[in-house]
Amino acid sequence: MCRVFGVSRSGFYEWLSRPESARKHADRQLSGKIKQAFEDSRQTYGTRRIQDALDPQGQRVSRARIGRLMRQQGLRCKTRRRFRATTNANPSLPVAPNHLNRQFQVAEPDRADVGDITYGATGEGWLYLAVFLDRFSRQVVGWALSAWMTADLGLDALQMARWRRRPGKGLLVHSDRGSQYASGRFHALLKDQGYVCSMSRKGNCWDNAPAESFFPTLQTELIHQRRFETREQAKQEIFEYIEVFYNRQRKHSTLGYRTPAEFDTLHRKAA
């Protein structure tokens, strides 16, 4: 080996017995903390979020160093696949104006909720998920699962948001023009509660970008990483992802690297 690499035998044995440098020792210790933060994030955090996760531990580290140590350990974030929408408009059903009008920054919680529907495959067939997110904290405040994409799917998700948050009259409820959001029962609930219905313009996904951006995250971090044998298994894991991980553990850069639940709590304490 010494001949192949062009080094002396004495030099090799000296290197072999040389004590670990302070820098290498620090890198080895830091690598363990980086890997732990990466695994705690379900392999979703990149250098910026890991940097933020290490800061409370007194580890002030550059992103370049974190990136180098991640590459050495073969740590790579989950990547997104192409996402397809699921809701379809029914021209015979009524639509509402776009009151949200891409005003995605909201000053207080329970002022505007945005909703959408996605799906995932299981060994028993498709499973559909409807969600509503509070625009202030990005928190999933209501959600519903079903084996069929019925008119009640969006209604059930909104009902959960209503029971959980108890928003007052004037709540802006925004969605696309899918038939689930244009149904008579859905609009009857909005009218009964004094909520304001808002819908995206025809064929314009950017009008509901905050809701639609949640689903690629869910698909990337959970659905595309798992093989669900049954719908019940998928329901349990989606429940755990939303209520435990996404709402309470996953840091959001737009929230100052706080979780949605933490961001909401801090606002209420300051109010």
Automatic annotation (TrEMBL):
Read off the InterPro entries from this record: HTH-like_dom, Integrase_cat-core, RNaseH-like_sf, RNaseH_sf, Transpos_IS3, Transposase_IS3/IS150/IS904
Lineage summary: Bacteria, Pseudomonadati, Pseudomonadota, Gammaproteobacteria, Methylococcales
- Integrase catalytic domain location is 93-268
- Report what the protein is called: IS3 family transposase
Q: What organism is the protein native to?
A: Methylococcus capsulatus
Q: What PROSITE patterns does the database record attribute to this sequence? A: INTEGRASE
Domain of life here? Answer: Bacteria
